[in-house]
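Hello Y.,

Per our agreement to keep a running log of every chain we model this quarter, I'm adding this entry. I've kept the format consistent with earlier entries: sequence first, then predicted structure.
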Amino acid sequence: MTGPPAPTPCTLPLVEVRVTELDRACLPAAGAVFDRLLALDPAQVVVDLSRCRHIDAAAIGLLLEVHRRLARTAGVLTIRNPNPRIRRILHTARLDQVLPIVTDPPSSAPGTPATGQEPASAQPALVAHGRASVATSQ
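Predicted structure for the entry above:
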């Protein structure tokens, strides 16, 4: 007699995290969000820093830890849209030699909403806003 089939693991292709503050003060909450996020076994995690005003050494350590954990499962961590000040900090810390850091061009593609928002079907399943609160979009 055989039992029910083993559940197949669920893997998300992309998880995006939008961060407004990433420093020692919010590190415990941010770390908890990243722990929950990594439990989903994503293929790629994009950390959007477009609205982040400050990043410190503790936050860089957290990003490196997330990178290491993702690399163990062949996942990729990408940093998106850091402002020039944060880009300099990441460059000084040599994070730009470890992680892809990308800047999105202004949205002008046909079919892109005028608000600059992606269509709902293109948005990731999990997005963290602000100080690491989690909301799902479906």
